[in-house]
Amino acid sequence: MLLAITLVCVFGLLFHLYNSLITKPRKLQLALKKQGIIGPQPKFLLGNILEMKKSCEAAKKFVSNGDVVDSHNCGATILPFFAQWQRQYGEVFMFSLGNTQIVHVTQPEMVREITTCTSLDLGKPAYQAKERGSLLGNGILTSNGPFWAHQRKILAPELYMEKVKGMINLVQDSASTLLSSWNNEIEAQGGIADIKIDPDLRRFSGDVISKACFGSNFSKGEEIFYKLRALQEASSKRVLSTGIPGIRYIPSKNNRETWALEKEIKALILKIVKEKQISEAAPSDQKDLLQMVLEGATINMNTQNAIDNFIVDNCKNIYLAGYETTAVAATWCLMLLAANPIWQQRVRDEVVQICKGKIPDADMIRQMKQLTMVINESLRLYPPVAVISREALKEMKFGEINVPKGVNLWTIVTTLHTDPKIWGNDSYKFNPQRFANGIRDLVHFYLLGELIKMSNPVEEIVGESTLENKQKALNHNDSSSSSSTTDDDFRRPIDKKKCHLFDRHKPIHSTLGGGKLADILLWRKKKISGGLLAGATVIWFLFECSGYHLLTLICHSLIVSLAILFFWSNLSLFVNKSFVELPKIELPEELWMRLVLLLRDQCTCASGIFREVASGNDLKKFLYAIFSLWIVSIVGRWFSFLTLVYLITVMLLTVSFFYEKYGDQVDTYGEMAIKELRKQYSQVDEKVLQKLPIPFIKDSKQE
């Protein structure tokens, strides 16, 4: 009996492992492939983790060698594999982290659907609570469904904008303390000092969060912040091992460190909670965020352990959301101001003009347009969170794609915030002027607005911006009192709007369609482009230079193929090897129908153009058609048809590539040439064409 139970348990475990590690991932991959979504081939248990690590190591070597160009393309260094896969597989592709299947999305319309989806069927990925449980627990940043709604109902009211406005004084006090310490350090070093601002800004951010949310100063929660920082670093070492089954249970050095920090942080938070409960035994109308968490923990919580976990998890979420992201965002904002003295002076002048020596209040901060532009631009270039991840808790549809249950959706914020197709050729440059009319006046504002909202964990909780108010208060004092530079003191001029040939507003890749054809023409798929050019050259040489004929080549190829296969099939009887049967080829009927319909549409379009030109209603179109056909007839005398096709192929594979590389110079001279041609044409039109005795021209002039 015991043996039977053991066998049942063993086979049940094996079946569960087979289903979760092999059957389920393959089923999800197959469902996505049927919709045309492909990606790098995953390895068993590891997925694409090895490729990602290899790509990151190569990017680190690239940076350490000092080979990175002067731009703000941080995504190419942090997540280089996504750019490589996107060039290879398109805007939507799939990859795997262990047995977790992920769809990478950068199509703007699909991103918009995902970021604005309010259904509880689209939730936080399950791996976050599992793999990052020690850091995030089951708090508001990782929970789903009714439990998430319960937590949001508790936390959101305390972080609405009206509440945040009341925190301005707290932010101002912390900012004044920080800047006073900087001023003292500058005076001690004779008026000029190199200050490492990163730890100071973390302390500033922690002080604000502690006072505003927990009613204490930074010193009381300092140990929690430092241990959370250590826990965050320990967890980051396991990022690329996400999804590998059972790895979080292995007692490795990193896991043991993580478990120890988790216990210490839990004990410290509960200690502060206990002290607060003792000090505020009497009921009070003034409730801070911690008090709201304590009251919410007693609702629907049956055990003391569940109550403690609810309190600890949400406190950690609030600490991380308000402390880490604000400090990082403020650091980048100050760095960009230091590296751009022109904008630094603009912000300083604005602050001096609005505040006039007074401490800023909420109304003054609202008037700081230049500072708002700088903050928006810094959040665009360096968003607080690089990746937004969601999981389909039920089968869902976004755009034309059906997302199966269990598939994760990833949107890379750094990629969309610097995509040249969305932001223009200066997308990697610091240019706050693009926000001169605010975010909503931009055609693509939803990408910035929604992604900034979702990439900031504070926004994840409430949908209102506490981060921006803290940055403005800090930058106000800093801008009004001192100037700063980076280690390499330089200035970057604001790029002027560039003109392109034929009023082109998109990059050449998008102009060519943005798909595989554009990749081939621009040599982004070098093997295919090189093979196409080599194949065209071989064909041209065979038929044009060697005098070979197409029918002869086809017959000779068939003779050789049939002879080899015939002799091999007979030889296999003597060498005891089975003959590999040739596959049966059946061309799909649907494909031929599409080709026929496409040919019909093209013929219909061509006949329509011919009829329109020949009808005599438009002299300009008639002259264009006659001139074009005349040019083609002249070119046809110089080359054979095959040579002409070969030359066109070579031009498509070279002109597009060199134009993308030297487009600025070509556009400059091309615009000059086009203006001159238009000028000459207008003179011909005025002196010759308008004087021709053609009735419809006179009628059009009278109209």
UniProtKB/TrEMBL annotation:
Gene3D superfamilies: Cytochrome P450 (1.10.630.10). It comes from the Eukaryota. GO terms for molecular function: heme binding; iron ion binding; monooxygenase activity; oxidoreductase activity, acting on paired donors, with incorporation or reduction of molecular oxygen. It is found in: Endoplasmic reticulum membrane. It is a multi-pass membrane protein. It holds the Pfam family Reticulon. The keyword DNA-binding does not apply. The chain crosses the membrane at residues 528-543, 550-571, 645-662. The keyword ATP-binding does not apply. Belongs to the cytochrome P450 family. This is Reticulon-like protein.
